[in-house]
Amino acid sequence: MLLLSTTGGAAAPQPWQVYFQPPATPVMEKLYDFHTFLLWIEGGIVCGVIALLVYTLVRFRASRNPVPSRRAHNTLMEVIWTLVPVLILMVIIVPSFKLLYQMDVTPKAELTLKAIGSQWYWTYEYPDYDIRFDSNMVPEEELKPGQPRLLEVDNRVVVPTHTTIRVLTTASDVIHSWAVPAFGVKKDSIPGRLNETWFRVEKEGVYYGQCSELCGVNHGFMPIVVEAVSKAQFQKWVAAHQPKPANVPKTPAS
């Protein structure tokens, strides 16, 4: 059952893409910003090293220094090249630790989703609603117009927007990994162990991911599709997928 279009509002890998997908959760937004922050620092370091190399080549070339210096130590320079990396690491460590804490600690969840990896498909459970289904990749010959090859599934995960969702993940055979790049989520699914992560989608859309562990010969054919819809649409989806109550025969009155 598709609640949203297969072409509109989708976050999926694009041809020749070299950067992140647009962030869809607060965690991924901060990961995006932190990566940009690191790029500026790395760029500054590269420019500084290049400038020092150029200065060294010009200032200490053989034609200008026919008699080379025998100086082996410079206390000021040694202090500088020790302190500068320490200061850079101190600038990086504060936002990185805050981000790691936010990614690791799950806030109070409004919905729980369980993802079970198997060779080579996912099984999903909604413990709050007694819903369970398998999710398999759609073969290429069965794809509909607009559905991405190797990424579409027969049963999508459906979640409400603006809702804190706890993800419990495990595996039935080997190690898998539940990963959705637009959410900033990647958590290993390990047999006999229950790992936990979380996300909160801020905008409706269809978000694609894949198993990110080498789990066997069909590792590349274990896609993940999460469809984020409004809370009202989610309740309609739940009503359509919840098991129907069994007809219990009435007991004759005595």
Which characteristics define this entry?
254 residues; alpha/beta; Immunoglobulin-like; five-stranded mixed beta sheet; four-stranded mixed beta sheet
**CATH hierarchy, class of the largest domain:** Mainly Beta
**Helix and strand element order:** EHHEEEEEEEEEEH
CATH homologous superfamily annotation of the largest domain: Cupredoxins -  blue copper proteins
Uncertain runs are none
Give a count of the beta strands, DSSP E runs of length 2 or more: 11
Helix share, percent: 25-40%
Q: Give the DSSP E fraction (strand runs of 2 or more residues).
A: 15-25%
Which CATH architecture of the largest domain would you pick? Sandwich
- The shape, in one word, is elongated
Give the mean pLDDT. Answer: 89
Strand order of the largest sheet: 4-3-2-6-9
How far apart, in Å, are the first and last alpha carbons?
46 Å
**In the CATH scheme, what's the topology name of the largest domain?**
Immunoglobulin-like
The total tally of domains equals 2
- How many DSSP H or I helices? 3
Oligomer: single chain
Structural class: alpha/beta
Major β-sheet profile: 5 strands, mixed
Radius of gyration, CA atoms, in whole angstroms: 26 Å
Can you tell me about this structure?
The chain is an alpha/beta fold and 254 residues long. The chain has 2 domains: 26-64 and 75-104; 111-241, Cupredoxins -  blue copper proteins (Immunoglobulin-like, Sandwich). Helices cover 30% and strands 24% of the residues. The chain has a 5-stranded mixed sheet with strand order 4-3-2-6-9, with no helix packed on it. A 4-stranded mixed sheet has the order 1-10-11-5. A hairpin with a 4-residue loop joins strand 7 (176-180) and strand 8. Helix 1 (26-59) packs antiparallel against helix 2 (75-104). The model has no long low-confidence stretch (mean pLDDT 89).
